Amino acid sequence: RMNCKEEDDSSTDCSSNNVKKMLKCVVVGDGAVGKTCLLMSYANDAFPEEYVPTVFDHYAVTVTVGGKQHLLGLYDTAGQIDLRDDPKTLARLLYMKEKPLTYEHGVKLAKEIGAQCYLECSALTQKGLKTVFDEAILTIFHPKKKKRRCVTCHSCCTVV
């Protein structure tokens, strides 16, 4: 239910044409990977010039989808412990001979986990940045249908 009022407290038309739907986008990931810069670059159309600690809790931008305007709430999360200097983590990566993720491997992994798609972007250059958020928004309106893996299982989980 929504109650719309103008500044003079008189009621206004609350039809769906006048109400913007709020969409929520939460960015999660390891610490120091650029979540805050990604959000700030998208919201402000510019990369932050100085280091920005995670103080970008929430920001809202207006986006147009299918000719209709929506509010997109952007939510930042604090990253987890930085394990780049952890001896056990470094030894494990060395043992596994880890390399940077290739685009092809990203696409394959996205298919394996049932992701909508795999995209790459740069908060610094903004290359692919709008596409990442556009695809995330379109996924809200046109989600990929999940294949049912388990017909008799009652402990299945749906992630939205």
UniProtKB/TrEMBL annotation:
So which domain of life are we looking at?
Eukaryota
Give GO BP annotations, semicolon-separated. small GTPase-mediated signal transduction
Record's keyword annotation contains GTP-binding: yes
Which UniProt keyword terms apply here? GTP-binding, Nucleotide-binding
Q: Is Transmembrane one of the keywords?
A: no
- The membrane spanning regions, by residue number, are none
One family name in Pfam for this protein: Ras
PROSITE patterns attached to this UniProt entry: RHO
- GO MF terms, alphabetically ordered: GTP binding; GTPase activity
What is the protein name stated in its UniProt record? Ras -like protein family member J
Which gene codes for it? RHOJ
